[in-house]
């Protein structure tokens, strides 16, 4: 009996201490926005940044963050080559703004690839062979003589002349030419 009292006494003491602890009410609990703000503020401090750096240097974390090459390859194939992926890209490229942004983002990379290819002697020789092919030359000449090509060229030329950038450049060239003529005439008159 004395042993059971010895065991019961510490348990009662713990219950008494726990009963005296302050109890949070639901009104005092922090809501989601306050908790989020507090965590963001902590992460912005130097100590928070250092803690994140330490976590990111942990080998176990690194292994979980680095994607397996096979997983990446498989995901790309499933999303780009699948029927759903093909439909997604077709719909996306129908939007002119999306197509323009993709073209703009890839422009410098494409230019770099083409410039590198033009420096490659093997590629250049293949390109020259293609242009020397009599059948290709014949097809190009037939295409250039067609009414469709002429209409297309006329539309391109009209579009170019209506472009504000071209108009400004043309105006600049005319002003420069007139200035050069005036300078030349002034020079001839002064002699």
From TrEMBL:
Residues 1-20 form the signal peptide. The keyword Transcription does not apply. Pfam families: GerD. Residues 65-178 form the Spore germination GerD central core domain. PROSITE patterns: PROKAR_LIPOPROTEIN (PS51257). The keyword Signal applies. Keywords: Signal. InterPro entries: GerD_central (IPR041262). NCBIfam families: spore_GerD. This is Spore gernimation protein GerD. It comes from Mesobacillus campisalis.
């Amino acid at each position: 009996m004395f042993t059971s009292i010895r065991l019961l006494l510490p348990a009662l003491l713990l219950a008494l201490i726990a009963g005296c602890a302050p109890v949070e009410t639901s009104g005092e609990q922090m809501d989601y926005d306050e908790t989020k703000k507090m965590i963001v503020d902590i992460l912005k401090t130097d100590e928070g940044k250092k803690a994140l750096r330490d976590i990111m240097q942990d080998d176990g974390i690194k292994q979980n963050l680095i994607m397996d090459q096979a997983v990446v390859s498989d995901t790309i194939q499933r999303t780009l080559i699948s029927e759903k992926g093909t439909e997604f890209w077709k719909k996306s490229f129908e939007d002119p703004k999306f197509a323009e942004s993709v073209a703009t983002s890839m422009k410098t990379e494409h230019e770099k690839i083409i410039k590198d290819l033009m420096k490659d002697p093997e590629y250049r020789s293949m390109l020259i062979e293609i242009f020397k092919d009599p059948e290709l030359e014949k097809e190009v000449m037939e295409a250039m003589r067609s009414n469709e090509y002429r209409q297309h060229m006329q539309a391109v030329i009209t579009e170019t002349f209506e472009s504000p950038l071209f108009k400004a450049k043309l105006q600049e060239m005319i002003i420069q030419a007139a200035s050069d003529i005036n300078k030349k005439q002034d020079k001839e008159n002064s002699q």
